């Protein structure tokens, strides 16, 4: 369509400066004569376009002329460019269309907005696939990504207080961030710790402080490279043991604070009746022996399945009984 072609010419001239009619014709797959007719149409519409003949001539816009055909703010532009990461468009075969659309938007953005939009794909990744097949993801409280995002785009080191799964005491780290990754709706900080790639789940970051030190990333390594290494490491881990547990409702909050990182599915709060004393949930442990950590809740937590996990807890309880029965 002619209107679409005129817009494309305008965007190319805004982005590239002076461009030859031959190059415009090749890019838009029309004849040079059509390009000159389009230039006349732009001029008639009030666009200050000019042509220069000769070896170094071409078509251009008068200095200082620019129009923001998108009307996008800086934040809107950054939000749009998150789409350039992996997503549903790949499955639909729309990678080419998305790339073309984003190039048009980039060309139309005011110059001050461009650097932030260009860096989005370098600092943000979206990977919608779950870590392991099967099972619904657990809805975690939305983390505060503000400080993490600031450090990522400011290229500064981060000081974190972080709570690992199954470890109640937080640990302090100073890391070199590469970017943020949304994996199956869960946000992760991808960073180097002492020069080695590490993955930090954002909702386990208790506090984050951006330092004045410049980030120390490995030369020639970007977010996509580090994420590929970390994702392979996680997916290569041995399959965890699924465990079904029930917990007394009165101890549920404490139980989730301590073991919430191992919960893979739990009933919605709305589904619990006031008379229900027990709450059932699905969990995952790296090995049967790791289930012994649930003994800290005594009779307030019961492993319902599998049998191998119940036998492990029975052996642990029997060992404790033998140790203390002489003092009973």
Word description of this protein:
With 328 residues, the protein is of the alpha+beta class. Helix content is 37%, strand content 24%. Strands 3, 4, 5, 6, 7 and 8 form a 6-stranded mixed sheet that branches. Strands 10-11-9-12 form a 4-stranded antiparallel sheet, covered by helices on one side. Strands 1-2 form a two-stranded antiparallel ribbon. The radius of gyration is 29 Å and the shape is elongated. The N and C termini lie far apart (90 Å). About 3% of the residues have low confidence.
Q: How are the elements arranged and paired?
A:
Elements: H1 2-16, H2 21-28, H3 32-44, E1 49-52, E2 58-61, H4 74-81, H5 88-91, H6 95-108, H7 114-123, E3 124-127, H8 146-154, E4 156-162, E5 171-183, E6 186-193, E7 196-201, E8 205-214, H9 223-235, E9 241-248, H10 252-259, E10 263-265, E11 278-285, E12 301-305, H11 307-324
Helix pairs in contact: 1-3, 2-3, 4-7
H-E string: HHHEEHHHHEHEEEEEHEHEEEH
Oligomer state equals single chain
Strand content: 15-25%
Gyration radius from CA atoms, angstroms:
29 Å
Helical run tally: 11
Largest sheet: 6 strands, mixed
Proportion of residues in helical segments: 25-40%
- In whole angstroms, the N-to-C terminal distance is 90 Å
Please count the beta strands (DSSP E, at least 2 residues each). Answer: 12
Structural class: alpha+beta
Low-confidence stretches: 133-142
